[in-house]
From TrEMBL:
<dbReference type="InterPro" id="IPR011044">
    <property type="entry name" value="Quino_amine_DH_bsu"/>
</dbReference>
<dbReference type="GO" id="GO:0005634">
    <property type="term" value="C:nucleus"/>
</dbReference>
<feature type="compositionally biased region" description="Pro residues">
    <location>
        <begin position="173"/>
        <end position="183"/>
    </location>
</feature>
<feature type="compositionally biased region" description="Acidic residues">
    <location>
        <begin position="374"/>
        <end position="392"/>
    </location>
</feature>
<dbReference type="InterPro" id="IPR013863">
    <property type="entry name" value="VID27_C"/>
</dbReference>
<feature type="domain" description="Vid27 PH-like">
    <location>
        <begin position="232"/>
        <end position="339"/>
    </location>
</feature>
<dbReference type="InterPro" id="IPR040979">
    <property type="entry name" value="Vid27_N"/>
</dbReference>
<protein>
    <recommendedName>
        <fullName>Vacuolar import and degradation protein 27</fullName>
    </recommendedName>
</protein>
<dbReference type="InterPro" id="IPR015943">
    <property type="entry name" value="WD40/YVTN_repeat-like_dom_sf"/>
</dbReference>
<dbReference type="InterPro" id="IPR040768">
    <property type="entry name" value="Vid27_PH"/>
</dbReference>
<feature type="compositionally biased region" description="Basic and acidic residues">
    <location>
        <begin position="195"/>
        <end position="204"/>
    </location>
</feature>
<dbReference type="Pfam" id="PF17748">
    <property type="entry name" value="VID27_N"/>
</dbReference>
<dbReference type="Pfam" id="PF17747">
    <property type="entry name" value="VID27_PH"/>
</dbReference>
<dbReference type="GO" id="GO:0005737">
    <property type="term" value="C:cytoplasm"/>
</dbReference>
<dbReference type="Pfam" id="PF08553">
    <property type="entry name" value="VID27"/>
</dbReference>
<dbReference type="InterPro" id="IPR040458">
    <property type="entry name" value="Vid27"/>
</dbReference>
<feature type="region of interest" description="Disordered">
    <location>
        <begin position="374"/>
        <end position="411"/>
    </location>
</feature>
């Protein structure tokens, strides 16, 4: 272990060098087993560890220096007058630290005592997975040599292995980062009656209490096993209500139950509602398909539970007060986020956790009184009139996504190709091949700016899983513009991109995070944290104010305009969001009861196509459209921003919808691609989601008089 003499001599011998050694990347945690505030606190999400000289001979420091993430450039400016400890943690290398290392779950971890904290408090520096074991070993040995010099006030060079062994600490063992259990008071609350001041559920949601059970529910209740031996993330007293599809209301099932979130291990979590003395009502693995919605106006949580191959049941939990609902929300969201990200919730920064939690709660439950007039208009392209006998499938894309040269040419390609092909729309033939790069694939491409496809603009934006770049077909050789390439070493899993009218770029990933760029070739100005679900598509408003991301079971609407602070009025594309100024995301999702009815009709899980704003030159974005299975859904943005309970309308077809978009320049007509035809329908024909509108497909027009003659 102590045979790295030559390396150490080189490190110590270069006296002009302040830093002897460094570990490039890792995370710093403070572990406090006895603290009521939590077991583990993430101090720096990204940092570098140094062993550094001091001006005093034989004295060295362990320095953990924060590394700013993308979008945090402004934080350093704002904290110039604050204590330097905000960005650096400095420790004198002394044997009292008990500096030690261990490999845990495939990662190297350095740990040392917190001399200013409680007796069991320790710091941990969790090295990045790319850190080599040899680097870890060298770092620990150099730290031992530094401690030797401090203790004996002489060079380590004549020290024996036995001399250095006294600075090798293996006990106490480094405690693992475990999940805390809730405070005892939260686990042992006696059953109490509800406070009379609590906000009650709306009258239409509460019928006379009666039991509504099915064979599936009884089987679930009888067979489910209570998991009291598992760690509990949260436990609260609740009322349980079940959604009745016949009446369209939630009906009380039991008023004295306990709701748990259990940690099953392996990043798997279970939600259970039970009466400890009588058995289990509901048990459900926590996954995105439960469609969780929290509403603080009515102290309630709504979710879907699945029983074998049965359609899901939609349940409502009502809590006795706001603190109990907030505790439950924290526990459930932690379980869902950890399941999706396979990392500890405690590793996320507090403002990131707030961003994630806010996305899963209703803004308000107030209804908007005005209803759109319901009518029916349709224009139709029939398969029989399609000269090329085209059959539409999941790859269908409307031409406005990638056309060039005033809509006469179309860029086409396949995922992971190194090339993009130029197709003449009029002849349907490939007329050119643009090789992008020898080593970097292009998996997606978008216009230079939102309306570039209406001009003679030749260049466009492409991206791979970890790079974003400009493609210029006019240059010789490979078409990638090297000076406008931003490539990341880490696996960012980029999945989609979109541009604004000014050419600002939003890039989303399969991890669920979003990066905002004002130009290519540099770091992102802002980095919005991941909720955990992969983002399959992204759109932005022309002015860059609104970002629309599509996940499998919901959409995410983000306001990129900063309202407060020194960057007030600026977009996240232009200036990074401050530490406490991340935008509040709006999660556009179907209500759990509607999801249950959708799946009852289709026997298929929810899976949204890429959502789009209506768009056009000098047009304001007012609506969003997406589809899942045979359903098309449009959201009214005014109702969304007002907080309407159900700001969407639906239209059902008898076949699966393959693609959809608004007609360019209008929010009144929606283009719909079905397996054998294309429809253009009036938005006024969409209806409020009810049991009848969900169950009844529209009749598709087949007459020749309804064929669309105008291009779209």
């Amino acid at each position: 272990m102590f045979m790295i003499r030559n390396v150490s001599k080189l490190l110590f011998g270069e006296t002009s060098k302040q830093d002897l050694l460094q570990i490039d990347s890792g995370q710093l945690y403070l572990i406090r087993p006895r603290s009521p505030k939590g077991y583990s606190e993430c101090i720096f999400k990204e940092s570098t560890a140094f062993i550094r000289r001091t001006s005093t001979p034989h004295h060295y420091q362990l320095v953990i220096q924060r590394v700013f993430e993308e979008g945090e450039e402004t934080l350093q400016e704002e904290s110039e007058d604050e204590d330097a400890e905000m960005n650096d943690r400095v420790f004198l290398l002394d044997e009292s630290l008990h500096f030690r290392s261990v490999f845990r779950d495939g990662q190297a971890v350095f740990a040392w005592n917190d001399l200013l904290g409680d007796p069991d408090d320790t710091f941990e520096f969790v090295c990045d997975t790319a850190t080599q074991p040899g680097q870890v070993n060298t770092f620990e040995i150099v730290a031992m040599q530094c401690q030797f010099e401090r203790k004996y006030k002489r060079s380590y060079e004549n020290a024996t292995d036995a001399d250095l062994e006294q600075f090798s600490f293996s006990t106490p063992t480094i405690p693992p980062i475990v999940r805390p259990t809730p405070p005892k008071a939260a686990q042992e609350q006696p059953p109490t009656s509800h406070n009379k001041k609590d906000v009650s559920l709306p009258k239409e949601s509460l019928h006379t209490p009666r039991i509504v059970r099915t064979e599936a529910i009884e089987q679930e209740r009888d067979e489910a096993k209570h998991q009291r031996d598992l760690p509990i993330l949260t436990k609260e007293l609740v009322e349980l209500h079940l959604y009745d599809t016949d009446s369209g209301t939630f009906i009380l099932q039991d008023s004295e139950l306990e709701a748990y979130v259990f940690d099953n291990g392996g990043w798997k979590y279970t939600l259970e509602v039970a009466n400890p003395g009588k058995g289990v009502w509901v048990t459900q693995v926590i996954v995105p398909d439960i469609s969780p919605v929290f509403n603080f106006d009515y102290l309630s949580f709504i979710f879907n539970a699945y029983q074998d191959e049965h359609a899901p049941f939609s349940w409502l939990l009502r809590f006795r007060d706001m603190p109990s609902l907030e505790r439950f929300q924290e526990g459930l969201m932690r379980g869902l986020w950890e399941h999706l990200n396979e990392t500890s919730w405690l590793k996320a920064k507090s403002d990131d956790r707030d961003y994630i939690v806010e996305a899963f709660q209703d803004i308000t439950m107030s209804d908007v009184s005005e209803d759109e007039e319901v009518g029916f208009e349709a224009e139709n392209v029939d398969e029989e009139e399609n000269p090329d006998d085209v059959s539409f499938d999941e790859t269908t894309q409307f031409p406005d996504d990638g056309t060039h040269e005033e809509n006469s040419q179309l860029a086409v390609g396949t995922q992971s190709d190194r090339s993009v092909f130029k197709m003449d729309i009029e002849t349907g033939k490939i007329v050119d091949e643009w090789k992008v790069h020898d080593d970097i694939p292009i998996i997606n491409y978008v216009p230079e700016n939102k309306f570039a496809q209406l001009t003679n603009e030749q260049t466009f934006i492409g991206h791979s899983k970890n790079a974003i770049f400009r493609v210029d077909p006019r240059i010789s050789g490979n078409k990638m513009v090297d000076s406008e390439l931003k490539q990341y070493l880490s696996k960012n899993e980029f999945s989609a991109a979109a541009t604004t009218e000014k050419g600002y770029i939003a890039v989303a990933s399969n991890k669920g995070d979003i990066r905002l760029f004002d130009r290519l070739g540099i770091n992102a100005k802002s980095h919005l944290p991941a909720l955990g679900d992969p983002i399959v598509g992204i759109d932005v408003s022309a002015d860059g104010r609104w970002i629309l991301a599509t996940c499998r079971t919901y959409l995410l609407l983000v306001d990129a305009k900063q309202e407060t602070g020194k960057n007030a009025g600026k977009l996240g594309f232009e200036k990074g969001f401050g530490k406490d100024a991340k935008p509040k995301p709006r999660r556009l999702a179907l209500s759990p009861s509607h999801v249950a009815q959708f799946q009852h009709e289709t026997k298929m899980p929810l899976s949204f196509t890429i959502a789009k704003f209506n768009t056009g030159l000098n047009a304001e974005e007012t609506s969003v459209v997406a589809s899942t299975g045979p359903f098309i859904i449009t959201w009214d943005l005014k109702k969304v921003l007002k907080g309407s309970k159900e700001p969407y309308s639906i239209r059902r077809y008898s076949e699966e919808v393959k693609a959809d978009n608004f007609r360019f320049g209008s929010d009144k007509s929606v283009i719909v691609a079905l397996p054998q035809q294309v429809d253009m329908v009036a938005k006024g024909s969409f209806k409020k989601a009810t049991r009848q509108s969900i169950a009844t497909p529209v009749k598709q027009l087949r007459s020749r008089s309804s064929i669309v003659n105008s291009p779209y």
